[in-house]
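Lab notebook page, bench 4
Experiment: in silico fold of construct C2
Operator: M.H.
Input chain length: 244 residues
Purpose: comparison with the prior construct
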Amino acid sequence: MSDSQRTHRQWHFDWRLLVFSGVFLPLLVSLGVWQLNRAEEKQVLLEQWQQEAENLAWQDMVSGDLTSGRPVTLTGMYGSRTWLLDNRTRDGAPGYEVLAEFRPLEGPPVVINRGWVQAPRTRAELPDIATPEGIFTLEGRISDYPVPPVLVDQPAAEDQWPRRVQSLSEQAARLEIPELPDRIVRLSGEGQPGAYRADWEPDLMGPQTHYGYATQWFALAVALTILTVVASYRKRELSKDRSQ
């Protein structure tokens, strides 16, 4: 008498596993679909903003919706007022962001963030800021006033420009220039007239980021499905006796 054994897999109903998968699988799929929808919305929004930036004049944009991140083109000249936003570091070096008055040929004035400059060795010194003269066309994006939540506006100690500040709220800027809108403009790059180091991080999460998140959610849904199917099949040993 000899025994030979073999194994095969058989479907095993586990209601706890199926309930778990039944809850989380639709959730993962819905999150993936939501990210795809967000990517489509973001693409439409970016295309709309680009088209409006080309077609709308600055004065028309100001009277409309100045949404942060929206591209804008301005033609005008720099003014005489410059704020130096303190405690801004790049690559471990202390410095300032240069916020300058800009007066378009049409429409109200606006504060332009010209980018970052390195601070001198001592606090008693301020960086040498050169303001270009003439009429320029600038490209940038709408941005919020730089107001960290833990800081408040400091009263101006002197009527000297450029002026070092820890923050610049809309209210503080309007004490100097009452016509300012409720947003500023950040230059799009270092190639713009009057720009310093303007290598900003993107203001908005682009469509490709949403597509990446959607791929991750769908991959998790596929992995959950495969694991559920594999775990539902269990090995079962079958023995068979042979007589000789």
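Observations: The chain has four helices and eight strands. The helical segments are 15-55, 58-62, 170-176, 207-232.
Next step: discuss at group meeting.
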